[in-house]
């Protein structure tokens, strides 16, 4: 690899040994690992490296050139990448031109003859792609922990540099006729990038390709070493309690333990330096986080171990309520802080009733922007007497039930506990909890500030 050099003479970033190994392995992979009936006539990938969460959108045009219908598209990833994959979604549409896409179910598969160094996913087509037909497929993948700080330790005034590795060729079990790769960088310094003949850096976009007529499993490593000072906000654990209260309210309480997951701070921290020129003497640190709360959130508070913090800013419109959370000190690499955010939401926006059933429909993830949560625990505290509880979530979660007692309770309130590792903003989707209400409670309807009709939502519930 030849490297472009910036002003500063830092040594070149290390190549992960696994990447080099992979090359050898892939050279030996037979195209027979997959059914060879598909040909990718065009593959355009866009990689977004502007935050610490890496998003890759691959837009594929596939043709069935074989004699038999094809019912799945295989999507392989090197294991070193797959282990950091937090979300994968595929949208497909069949036809001569790209039309309305549908979401395709995805599963992990193990095609016979597949090398153990690769993890295969399969996107299942709603109906088999017949001979000669074309499929448009968009695959969104989101990776965590894929920007490696290099150097690993920096001083207070230094910018944070990170390394990203990928393949300039789209890794596919099918032949690929034409393809491009575009990598969007956050702006700022680009220390180096792999200079393949058709590499081009324009402003903050790095392009590779076009490449033509590549065989299955082509792999061409690229490394980019660049400046990224965006908040690497990583929560080790978040506990999010959603309590359906008796007072016409849904009460949310979120406990955070957040660290700056980027390059660690070395040397002394000088607050005087920082305060005189925070953007220079603390360029890699972050001092606030934005929480996007639902539009009618009220009674919002934010506190840490010491007490309420009133310096946070709040503004709202009809679409959202935005809270700026400002910890007591800026966060540098390796530093952490714990705090609690609480707010109330109107019951009628999230809880619906029909046929003696109560139905909660609310978002799963944290309202904090661009945060990675290594372990998210969502606890939904239901009113006393809730029975036959059913949970429906758009992704797998570990589920269990507890009971919570407060002084007015007789039998205690059922608590549904949902746990999920590696939660990213893409997981901030709606989930539902449906319960039977005991007769006695159903009679108490007024007490619940019930909306008179639940409209469309009821239809969705069953
Ligand atoms: C913090 O604010 C909350 C909500 O406004 C309030 O209930 C609580 O008493 C306050 N706590 C302190 C220590 O001021
Ligand atoms: C949950 O609420 C969202 C937003 O209002 C809505 O788009 C979605 O259809 C609802 N889901 C169900 C199952 O009712």
UniProtKB/TrEMBL annotation:
Pfam families membership: Ribophorin_I
Q: Which GO terms describe its cellular component?
A: oligosaccharyltransferase complex
Name the predominant localization.
endoplasmic reticulum
Q: Does the record bear Membrane in its keywords?
A: yes
The pathway where this protein functions is:
Protein modification; protein glycosylation
UniProt membrane topology term: Single-pass type I membrane protein
| Compartment list | Endoplasmic reticulum membrane
Signal peptide residues are 1-36
**Would I find DNA-binding among this entry's keywords?**
no
Domain of life of the organism encoding this protein = Eukaryota
Q: Which keywords fit this entry according to its UniProt record?
A: Endoplasmic reticulum, Membrane, Signal, Transmembrane, Transmembrane helix
Write out the function statement from the record. Answer: Subunit of the oligosaccharyl transferase (OST) complex that catalyzes the initial transfer of a defined glycan (Glc(3)Man(9)GlcNAc(2) in eukaryotes) from the lipid carrier dolichol-pyrophosphate to an asparagine residue within an Asn-X-Ser/Thr consensus motif in nascent polypeptide chains, the first step in protein N-glycosylation. N-glycosylation occurs cotranslationally and the complex associates with the Sec61 complex at the channel-forming translocon complex that mediates protein translocation across the endoplasmic reticulum (ER). All subunits are required for a maximal enzyme activity.
- Cite the record's note on assembly: Component of the oligosaccharyltransferase (OST) complex.
- Would you identify the family this protein belongs to, as annotated? Belongs to the OST1 family.
Q: What is this protein called?
A: Dolichyl-diphosphooligosaccharide--protein glycosyltransferase subunit 1
Species this chain originates from: Zea mays (Maize)
Q: Gene behind this chain?
A: LOC100285254
């Amino acid at each position: 690899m030849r490297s472009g050099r910036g002003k500063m003479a830092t040594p070149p970033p290390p190549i992960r040994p696994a990447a080099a190994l992979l090359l050898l392995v892939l050279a030996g992979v037979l195209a027979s690992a997959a059914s060879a009936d598909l040909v990718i006539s065009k593959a355009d990938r866009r990689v977004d490296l502007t935050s610490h969460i890496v998003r890759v959108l691959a837009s594929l045009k596939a043709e069935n050139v074989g004699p038999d219908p094809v019912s799945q598209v295989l999507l392989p990833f090197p294991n070193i990448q797959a282990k950091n994959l937090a979300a994968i979604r595929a949208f497909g549409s069949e036809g001569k031109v790209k039309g309305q896409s549908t979401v395709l179910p995805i599963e992990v598969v193990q095609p016979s003859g597949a090398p153990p160094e690769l993890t295969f996913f399969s996107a299942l087509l709603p109906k088999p792609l017949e001979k000669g037909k074309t499929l448009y497929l968009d695959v969104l993948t989101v990776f965590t922990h894929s920007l490696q700080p290099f150097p690993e330790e920096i001083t207070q005034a230094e910018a944070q540099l990170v390394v990203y590795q990928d393949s300039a060729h789209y890794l596919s079990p099918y032949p690929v006729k034409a393809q491009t790769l575009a990598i969007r960088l956050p702006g700022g310094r680009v220390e180096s990038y792999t200079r393949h003949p058709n590499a081009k850096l324009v402003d903050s976009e790095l392009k590779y390709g076009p490449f033509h007529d590549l065989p299955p499993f082509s792999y061409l490593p690229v490394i980019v070493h660049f400046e990224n000072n965006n908040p690497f906000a990583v929560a080790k654990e978040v506990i999010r309690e959603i309590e359906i209260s008796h007072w016409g309210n849904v009460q949310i309480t979120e406990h955070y333990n957040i660290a700056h997951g980027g390059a660690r701070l070395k040397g002394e921290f000088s607050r005087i330096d920082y305060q005189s020129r925070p953007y220079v003497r603390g360029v890699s640190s972050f001092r606030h986080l934005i929480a996007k709360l639902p539009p009618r959130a009220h009674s919002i508070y934010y506190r840490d171990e010491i007490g309420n913090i009133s310096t946070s800013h709040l503004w709202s419109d009809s679409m959202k309520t935005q809270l700026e959370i400002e910890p007591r000190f800026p966060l540098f690499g390796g530093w952490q802080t714990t705090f609690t955010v609480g707010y109330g939401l109107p019951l009628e926006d999230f809880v619906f009733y029909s046929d003696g059933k109560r139905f909660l429909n609310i978002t799963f993830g944290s309202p904090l922007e661009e945060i990675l949560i290594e372990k998210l625990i969502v606890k939904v505290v239901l009113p006393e007497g809730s029975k036959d509880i059913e949970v429906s979530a758009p992704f797998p979660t570990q589920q269990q039930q507890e009971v919570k007692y407060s002084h007015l309770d007789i039998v205690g309130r059922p608590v549904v506990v949902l746990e999920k590792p590696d939660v990213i903003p893409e997981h901030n989707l709606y989930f539902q909890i449906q319960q039977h209400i005991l007769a006695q409670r159903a009679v108490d309807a007024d007490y619940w500030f019930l909306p008179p009709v639940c409209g469309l939502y009821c239809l969705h519930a069953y």
